[in-house]
Write a structure and sequence with these properties.
Layout: E1 10-12, H1 14-19, H2 29-44, E2 47-51, H3 55-75, E3 89-91, E4 97-98, E5 101-102, E6 106-111, H4 120-123, H5 139-164, H6 174-177, E7 180-189, E8 194-195, E9 198-199, E10 207-210, E11 216-221, E12 228-231, E13 237-239, E14 246-251, H7 253-258, E15 268-270, E16 278-288, E17 292-293, H8 297-302, E18 312-313, H9 314-323
Parallel strand pairs: 1-2
Antiparallel strand pairs: 2-14, 3-6, 4-5, 6-7, 7-16, 8-9, 10-15, 11-14, 11-16, 12-13, 12-15, 17-18
Amino acid sequence: MATDFKSIPVIDVAPLFAKCDDPKMVQDPGVREVVKQLDQACREAGFFYAIYWRILEGHILMLVSRYALDMNVRYGCLKKHKRLNQNRGYQRIGENITKGVPDMDEAIDCYKELKQGMYGALGKPMEGCNQWPHYPPNFKELMEKYISLCTEVSRKIMRGIALALGGSPDEFEGERGGDAFWVMRLIGYPGASTANGKCTSENDIGCGAHTDYGLLTLVNQDENITALQVRNQAGEWISAPPIPGTFVCNIGDMLKILSNGLYESTLHRVINKSPTYRVCVAFFYEPNYDAAVEPLEVCVRKSSGIRKFENAVYGEHLVSKVQTNFVT
């Protein structure tokens, strides 16, 4: 469970990444140190910064995303349809709902594409193709490259988290996450509005307090704008300012279940107090779409043999959340 943390820990994951696919990785002192830090971060905050040099590629994508969002506003392309299975594409400001309140953000939403009939009735609500922005012309290629990068980064971090929980490195692969579903959101937050010369950003919440759905989230933040806030156990909102060369990472609901509550999915929100338009690129690494998620036995043993969560099918969980998150 989250503690009264006052800052988000920063972890250099390079030793883990260097040995990630080595059968003897757990014996490496550098890996053991990263695993120790991951365990502490997931227990105490549910959030951490991961230092990773290839994040620079993400900054290029963020600049392109800003342009793509602007083009969608100007020309109205990629407009979403209201049916759930066509929720891919551009989302206007106020269309996303968090706990019944419209969020002051806009986004381009992309999901791993599911072929028709791939998961039967379970998969039908999420079947469909992504609507890629037409501007710039190479946006789809940039996006696919970045998705591949984030998928690999997430897989490697999850191997470290598996070790932190006392399991084998591949606990979150195979039937649980060997064919991981993913969601990508390119999100734009308008600058803070003003009245009588005073900032009124507290009334313009970019994204309301929520937890994420899956295993692990990687967020690439706009430089020089602090807007992401994480709530500690005391109810205080702790800022997560952008740190160059890092992803902001947080664990989701499915990892909370798999860890049997040893790790908590922490509430967070976004309030852009800057007058400048803010962009972030959020990548959500999820279990297999049809995965039956249940507490790991090693985590149940660490909890005095008490199983705290019932099984959950990831696809059902995702659909139930998406259905309540959009204006219909």
